[in-house]
Specification:
Blueprint (H helix, E strand, L loop, with lengths): L4 E4 L1 E9 L1 H4 L10 E7 L1 E2 L2 E2 L1 E2 L9 H7 L14 E8 L5 E3 L3 H7 L8 E8 L4 E6 L4 H9 L3 H4 E5 L5 E4 L5 E3 L3 E8 L5 E4 L14 H7 L12 E5 L2 E8 L4 E15 L4 E12 L2 E4 L3 E4 L4 E15 L5
Bound molecules: zinc ion.
């Protein structure tokens, strides 16, 4: 099927959001607290509409249900991935996600969440929260009950281009001044562990201490990222992660690259620059899917893209 499925993104106002999705990605949005752009999503809380072509006006969830061949007749009940851009003007709460088994017992039919972050940009001296310092569940419980957050929470400095894999059970948070592209399992189950004792409309936001302690991995283990890099004169492909939930690549192009879409489907987000895919113009902020059996395609221009797909061989 030689049809490119261009997505109409969905924007979410958040108390911690900012305006960089307008000022840096040129989206036509007026709200100054936009925290998230759901760029490729069929989730019930934000279902993208196809912008052009044969399926114009249809939602991604509609296509998943009614035209399964576009996605290689995969067996999941819903489109399994969710691609977001996030603009954190303020710190996000410190949180953790369950795995598939815990998620299904907590909210039957739900998936857990494995997610990964590509840092699109950040202010100077920005950090993220990833991991914790408790050696076992008992110490974790004590540190939480005694409010020893500084001691418990691990922070690390970040810079543009860094990449992090957040497996279920990993304590994590994005801090103020960060923009990321997130590739994740299509799930919305988050357990909030700590919200910096902030108030939202005079009240603290709900925490999920019991569930957090249930699912947090002890001790924490970082996932080591060692990108596999393929270079040619026209650009670079860096495979950032290859996991059973998704494979994520960053493609940098200056010239023309001819590649093969031989997966069930492939997600693309242009994060920098402009160019063409098979003679169709694309630029920063565009998101699209190449469906099953699309075959060979060429990317031309000076641009960077984040690509994701599900590898059957894992
Ligand atoms: Zn998360």
């Amino acid at each position: 099927m030689r049809e490119i499925l261009f997505m109409k993104p969905i924007f979410k106002s958040m108390i911690w959001g900012g305006n960089r999705l307008r000022t840096e990605f040129n989206y036509k949005i007026t709200d100054d607290n936009i925290g998230e752009c759901w760029a490729i999503s069929a989730h019930q809380n934000g279902d993208c509409i196809i912008k052009t072509g044969a399926y114009k006006g249809k939602t991604l969830s509609y296509l998943w249900k009614n035209h399964p061949r576009l996605f290689g007749n995969r067996t999941e009940k819903a489109f399994p991935l969710l691609i977001k851009l996030i603009d954190a003007k303020k710190d996000l709460s410190i949180q953790v996600h369950p795995d598939d088994t815990y998620a299904d017992s907590y909210q039957p039919g739900s998936y857990g969440k494995t997610e990964c972050w590509y840092i699109l940009g950040c202010d100077e001296n920005t950090e993220i929260v990833i991991g914790h310092n408790a050696k076992d569940k008992n110490e974790l419980r004590d540190m939480i009950n005694e409010g020893r957050w500084k001691e418990l929470i691990r922070r690390r400095p970040i810079k543009k281009g860094d990449f992090f894999q957040i497996t279920p059970g990993t304590v994590h948070a994005i801090k103020a001044g960060t923009m990321i592209l997130e590739t994740q399992q299509s799930s919305d189950i988050t357990f909030r562990l700590y919200d910096y004792d902030r108030l939202d409309n005079g009240k603290p936001r709900q925490l999920h201490i019991k569930e957090s302690i249930d699912v947090i991995n002890c001790p924490h283990r970082d996932v080591l990222i060692e990108p596999r890099i393929i270079k040619s004169s026209e650009g670079t492909i860096a495979e950032l992660i290859r996991d059973k939930h998704y494979t994520v690549q960053k493609i940098d192009i200056s010239g023309t690259m001819t590649l093969e879409q031989d997966k069930d489907f492939m997600n693309f987000s242009v994060i920098e620059g402009e160019g063409e895919i098979d003679k169709t113009k694309i630029s920063k902020g565009d998101h699209f899917i190449l469906p099953y059996k699309y075959g060979q395609f060429s990317l031309t221009g000076r641009m960077s893209l984040i690509v994701s797909y599900i590898d059957k061989d894992i």
